[in-house]
Amino acid sequence: MTSELTVLALAALLQAVQISAAALVMNGDVGAKWNAGPRDTTPEFAPLTGRLRRAVNNHFESLIFLTIAVTVVSLSGQSSGFTAGMAWLHLLARAAYVPAYAFGWTPWRSIIWGVGFLATMAMILAALF
Questions:
Q1: 20 to 30 Å CA-CA from 26: which of 66, 74, 76, 124?
Q2: pLDDT of residue 43
Q3: For domain 3-35+47-128, which architecture applies?
């Protein structure tokens, strides 16, 4: 397996951890019954819960770009030390993004997001050129 594919698999596992963390914190706010129910109403969440939920959604968006980048790099045979490094940089940025978002580290949250995004775009550009 290429480094890029390994990173993609680890990013999916990171997403699962994020979902679990958000659910656990949410259970503390509203209880497991609401969390497991149809969620017809939206209760008031604590700030940490809201941030963790938004971080989960942001990671889903990030996974789309990472999946595209890894697919393009892998299927075109353009895997290199550079693309592997960018993939790992993306994963490190995404791992750092969770606490940065959860604890409101301004402006670091946005800077960390930008590092991950630029690393992913660099992978795509490297495969194109």
A1: 66
A2: 86
A3: Up-down Bundle (1.20)
